[in-house]
Amino acid sequence: MDTILSLAGVGKTYKSGHVALRSVDLEIKRGEIFALLGPNGAGKTTMIGIVCGLVSPSSGTITIDGHDAVKDYRKARAMLGLVPQELSTDAFTKVRATLEFTRGLFGRGPDRAYIDELLKDLSLWDKRDTKIMELSGGMKRRVLIAKALAHRPEILFLDEPTAGVDVELRRDMWRLIAKLRERGTTIILTTHYIEEAEEMADRVGVISKGQLLLVEEKHALMKKLGKREMDILLVDPLTAIPPELAEWDLTLEDDGNRLRYVFDAQAERTGIPSLLRRLPDLGIAFKDLETHKSSLEDIFVDLVSEKKEQAA
Amino acid sequence: MSVGAFNGHGVWAIYKAEMARALRTLWQSVATPVITTSLYFVVFGGAIGSRMQQVGGVDYGSFIVPGLIMLTLLTQSISNASIGIYFPKFTGTIYELLSAPISAVETVIGFVGAAATKSLVLGLIILATSTLFVDLHIQHPGAMIAFLVLTALTFSMFGFIIGVWANGFEQLSIVPALLVTPLTFLGGAFYSIDMLPEPWRTVSLFNPVVYLVSGFRWSFFGQGDVSVGVSLGFIGLLLLLCLGAIMWIFRTGYRLKP
Ligand SMILES: Nc1ncnc2c1ncn2[C@@H]1O[C@H](COP(=O)(O)OP(=O)(O)OP(=O)(O)O)[C@@H](O)[C@H]1O
Ligand SMILES: [Mg+2]
């Protein structure tokens, strides 16, 4: 598959001096669904803003289907559609009129049939002559999605598409995304949730503190991220981990009241049964067990330290 | 940037959206200036004018018509255009304009074109209103239209710049209130600057509005405070200044992009 969007050395330092993006290199393939996964303030919106022309980059170049995003901005931008994170809408305009406005702005002549289709796809048909300010938040988000599609973009950016969205809209959105994908539209979305990236994307980019830590096929990443933690709640606290338990690489948490074991849930041998047999042998009594997925933060910490090791 | 053709659909979309905004508030857009102007006629034309009689062979009531139209044209052009661009900035919908394949010039044509259209229509309405109060005979209708159009365009651009610059609604109204209205009142809208004693006469020549009102008045009565060529040249210069500032705003993203 060929590349439809490429970022080379793209960085952004805001006027406040805050470095929001550090020299990002990224290639998006034609027709793929790419999820940008990262915590609050990671730089996801900044990155999308730079590609779409909302934020001026401090460094780097962006090429959209062979067109430089600055020099050849007309052709480049005509290919893009953006659903922003914030619900920014023109309160007094009616739904159909606002879609027609966007279509015109992107240089396309009227196409009533297509706008009708969009209105129906996003369950906005009944609201087509309603002023936007009279719509609910979820409906406004539908309007923003429809606007972003009004000129049939080849690349669609969805900045946190599921924030504040109910089950029904989520389902409508998945259906729409599937339809767009069949049509060959490339989709780039941002999310805080691993599950969401897992559900939708072909590839996932993990971003934290303005750094793109890694880009992986979803399945490869899920393996990497498929770590689980088991906490063993002790009856009597420990001050140190006995050397006999060294092979499990445990950590002591909660003032010695918890032993934490991190294991790979997808591995054939998790090491749990042997660990649990070993504890009574050493005279360590426990009263409860808890297991959970590693939090996003843990994963980021892991990835960052991994990356540092690789660099060293 | 030479790539691609002119985005006519984009310009039309902006123009139409801006005109639709004006139509939503049609009554206040038209009623306010018409009532204000009528009051000026009553106060200046009726009460004071009856004592002033004539200025340079023109009835005082007629004499103030060009100045009144200019006053409306300036304030309306500025407020229309400044709100037009400030509002998307305020609500965040500016993201669409910034992400669209539309050039600075095209964006300005859309916004400024719509703002200028609105104030031109208002100017003509006021002209029509004034014929209810005084007899008017326009000597150079072609030149009058030219002055109207150039002034509306120039000050709509100026308004656009204010809208981009403003960071709040107070700033939006501060320039018209502190700069434009005083300059218009002191710019010979209600008198000929020949009537002023020195040094105020000379000082007035630094007021850009003097040139606008003078040229516009010339198109009505064939006489002005300065020659019509100077007036035209001056408007042209202002127009170029505003255009330059707007180009710079879009090139640098000033107050539009972080
Ligand atoms: N206009 C601005 N001026 C200064 N700093 C900014 C500006 N916009 C964003 N930032 C900072 O840049 C960093 C990245 O912000 P960005 O909005 O790109 O993050 P994000 O990954 O989209 O976060 P979230 O998940 O919360 O939406 C943040 O620390 C933010 O405070
Ligand atoms: Mg964001």
UniProtKB/TrEMBL annotation, chain A:
One short Pfam family name for this protein?
A: ABC_tran
The organism's superkingdom is given as: Bacteria
Q: Which SUPFAM superfamilies match?
A: P-loop containing nucleoside triphosphate hydrolases
Report keywords, A-Z.
Answer: ATP-binding, Nucleotide-binding, Transport
Extract the Gene3D superfamilies matched here: P-loop containing nucleotide triphosphate hydrolases
A GO molecular function assigned to this protein is:
ATP hydrolysis activity
Task: List, alphabetically, the PANTHER family matched.
Answer: ABC TRANSPORTER ATP-BINDING PROTEIN
Q: Where is the ABC transporter domain?
A: 5-234
What is the designated name of this protein? Answer: ABC-2 type transport system ATP-binding protein
Which species is this record about? Stakelama pacifica
* Keyword ATP-binding belongs to the record: yes
UniProtKB/TrEMBL annotation, chain B:
The protein's name: Transport permease protein
Subcellular location(s): the record lists: Cell inner membrane; Membrane
The answer to whether keyword Transport applies is yes
Q: Which family does it belong to?
A: Belongs to the ABC-2 integral membrane protein family.
Question: Which GO CC terms are listed, alphabetically?
Answer: ATP-binding cassette (ABC) transporter complex
Which keywords, in A-to-Z order, does the entry hold?
Cell membrane, Membrane, Transmembrane, Transmembrane helix, Transport
Query: In this protein, which residues make up the domain named ABC transmembrane type-2?
Result: 24-253
Cross-referenced InterPro entries: ABC-2_transport_permease (IPR052522), ABC2_TM (IPR013525), ABC2_TM_bact-type (IPR047817), ABC_2_transport (IPR000412)
Q: Does the keyword Transmembrane helix apply?
A: yes
Q: Pfam families in the record, alphabetically?
A: ABC2_membrane (PF01061)
What is the protein's major site of localization?
membrane
GO molecular function of the protein, one example? ABC-type transporter activity
**NCBIfam families in the record:** PRK15066.1 (NF011648)
Q: Which domain of life is it from?
A: Bacteria
* TM spans (from-to): 26-48, 60-87, 107-133, 145-166, 172-191, 203-220, 226-250
